[in-house]
Amino acid sequence: MFYNSRGVASVLGVVIAVVTTLFLSLVKDVSEMALLVVLGISFSCSYILIMFTLEFLVFRELSKMYDMLDNLKSDNLSFFEEQNNTSTNPIKMANRKILDYASEKQKEIENLKRMEVYRREFLADVSHELKTPIFAAQGFVHTLLDGAMEDEVILKRFLKKAAKSLDGLDKMVHNLLSISQLESGDAKLLVEKYDLREQVEDIFDQLDNKAEKRNIDLKFSTSTKENVFVYADKRRIGHVMTNLVVNAIKYQDNDNGLVEVTLLEEDGKVFVSVADNGFGIPEEDVKRIFERFYRVEKSRAKSKGGNGLGLAIVRHILQAHGTQCHVQTEVGKGSTFSFVLHSKPFKEEELNIEMISA
User: Fold this and answer.
1) How far apart are CA 238 and CA 323, in angstroms?
2) Three-state SS for 195?
3) Residues near 133 by Cβ (< 8 Å), separated by ≥ 6?
4) For residue range 14-39, what is the model confidence (pLDDT) as tens digits?
5) Is the separation of the CB atoms in 199 and 237 below 8 Å?
6) Residue 261 main-chain phi, psi, to 5 deg
7) What's the rounded Cα separation, in Å, for the pair 270 and 222?
8) What is the pTM of this model?
9) Which residues cross the membrane (predicted)?
10) Phi-psi category of residue 297: left, alpha or beta, with phi > 0 → left and psi -120 to 50 → alpha
11) Residue 316 class from Cβ within 10 Å (0-12 exposed, 13-18 middle, 19+ buried)?
């Protein structure tokens, strides 16, 4: 009965009233009526003062702590955001610190749970993607060992297929290493000033045959006829541009498509976009296309030779440059991937970079 503010206030009120009355009784000529009045007043005042003090300063805050523990058990973090951090009450301040610490640890636990799910999915995806080229190459080699080597035509054809599977495996491993280095921060960007216009033209020259085979037109436009200089890692941005243009060529819904790269220089920045008139990306897939191994319409993407790592690498490279890739798409009308680069020098400490002279 004493584990609340009223019980404690009653006990203390009685003690204070009795002590006060006993001291007053030592005074001469004090009537019994006066002693009773003092007893009642001292008890009432003590009770009210102690009860409200304990209720608002102690027991209410303890109740909030119990509520916090209940919310932790139910994984409800909205409770923490409702707490007031401006009070000077020392118990409230201590309570707030406990709540902040609990909230931080709860979020860390949730993040660890998400990472565990991501790790399992990633291992499953890697195992699946590596299994295909390994089994293919293994099958061709064992077929040859079982006697097919006697036929030179079959021998050459199977060796080419095995080599192609192993080349795909090698490319996948290198892509995974690139993503891992970018995520961990081990891969520094070698930023230099170079002509992005010239780089795009070189990429078009390299991919011209691939585009011609599908009767796809490669178009390039800029806001100026002069060079378009940027400060970036030339090799990695080249990787980004190549991936985006290859995807735009590869995932067309017809053989009369268009891939257009646009460079727009404005206010110390270069706005880069790669647009196509392909089959577009469904809305439910847009948020996931930059995940590792994720492919839109996997059966069709598989037939195109994709492994779902290209856009993941694009995302990490651009994030390392302090920017991100935006997507505008409409099913049946095409997609546009865009990002921004610096056209003026910037401080090295802004990014994990190493500046080199042009």
Assistant:
1) 15
2) strand
3) 165, 166, 168, 169, 172
4) 889 889 888 888 887 788 888 888 88
5) yes
6) -105, 130
7) 10
8) 0.60
9) 7-27, 33-59
10) left
11) buried
